[in-house]
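[agent] plan:
  1. take the single chain provided in the ticket
  2. run structure prediction with default settings
  3. attach structure tokens to the ticket
  4. add a short note for the reviewer (M.T.)
[agent] executing step 1
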Amino acid sequence: MGAPFTLFVDSQFLSPYAMSAYVALTEKQLPFEVRPIDLDAGEQRMQPYQSRALTARVPALTHADFNLTESTAIAEYLEDLHPAPACTALYPADPRDRARARQLQAWLRSDLAALRQERPTETVFYDQPGQPLSDAGHAAAAKLIHVASALIGAGQATLFDQWCLADLDLAVALRRLWLDGLPDPLRDYAEAQWQRPSVRKWLEHNAAARG
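[agent] step 2 finished; step 3 output follows
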């Protein structure tokens, strides 16, 4: 019998959103199969993927006859399906902390467009230097550092008392500025997330895809 979940990700393992869903499944210790989708070839717009993934994007999760896209929706589905304490919690138990974590995830996905464009995920995973940041890029970087510094202090390895999925998302955003320079507390925080076993497993896939 196969794994109960199938996670469709980009074939280069570069999508931070696919990474978020992958880490969520790994943290929950749920058996799952990974299936790469070739975005450069437009496989996400072809059948059978398009009929499976409503928004024709990655990641997509298949669970029996149920298909779901969008990384935060996938994480919340897994959290509802396999809650703590039986499985690792993806979000804090405290309602205010949980709301803050979801606020941070939504903000990171909807703002900072200039930074995402000028420091793409090749910067995050391959440490590829980019061109000097534009004025818009500098403004986005300053905003990210301001928000992160308000949440992360010296020696702080997680946003809240326990790790949550928003820690990964914030670390990915901060690593866009890895070669531009980060305050030491933010660099230490992001590095701590990068050493988490679930994250290391994704990075192994990323390295293998790069060859």
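[agent] step 4 note for reviewer: The beta strands are 5-10, 32-37, 60-63, 66-69.
[agent] ticket updated
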